[in-house]
């Protein structure tokens, strides 16, 4: 079997491994393996093939990977997560809310709540809007 085919097999395996990781590291090594395969098909001795693999891999890791990662990450939309995702959501009062206690339901989850405006109260069934989350308590205002 020709050594170039071994390099091609390594490139395919590295590229397949990249599908599991997604860090673009193995893909850059796969490009290096393609460089080794090209050298092998040109008749370069094994030490030259290894050198081609190393050079192409280093160039890909140092020059191409950072640029590609930056472009991929810039294309991802930013989404709020955890409690930040609840700000601005509407809900329903489950247990009457006053300045000391109360429960609301937001997207199927029950949260303790208190009003944003001191002294304001909400009855069970009222619609509310989450102004912010402080710890495990939702600070709410009257909904629409």
Automatic annotation (TrEMBL):
Keyword Transmembrane helix in annotation: yes
Positions of the NfeD-like C-terminal domain: 84-141
Transmembrane segments: 29-62
Pfam family, one: NfeD
Membrane topology per record: Multi-pass membrane protein
Main subcellular location of this protein, as a coarse class: membrane
Subcellular localization(s) per the UniProt record: Membrane
Keyword entries, A-Z: Membrane, Transmembrane, Transmembrane helix
UniProt keyword Transmembrane, yes or no: yes
Name recorded for this polypeptide: NfeD family protein
């Amino acid at each position: 079997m020709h050594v170039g085919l071994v390099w091609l097999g390594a490139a395919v395996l590295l590229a397949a491994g990249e599908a599991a990781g997604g860090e673009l590291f193995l893909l850059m090594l796969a490009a290096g393996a393609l460089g080794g395969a090209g050298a092998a098909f040109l008749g370069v001795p094994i030490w030259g093939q290894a050198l081609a693999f190393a050079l192409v891999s280093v160039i890909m890791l140092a020059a191409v990977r950072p640029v590609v990662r930056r472009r991929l990450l810039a294309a991802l939309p930013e989404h709020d997560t955890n409690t930040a995702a609840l700000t601005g959501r509407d809900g329903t009062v489950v247990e009457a809310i006053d300045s000391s206690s109360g429960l609301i339901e937001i997207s199927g989850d029950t949260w303790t709540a208190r009003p944003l405006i001191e002294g304001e109260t909400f009855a069970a069934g009222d619609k509310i809007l989450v102004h912010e989350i402080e710890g495990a308590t939702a600070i709410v205002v009257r909904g629409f």
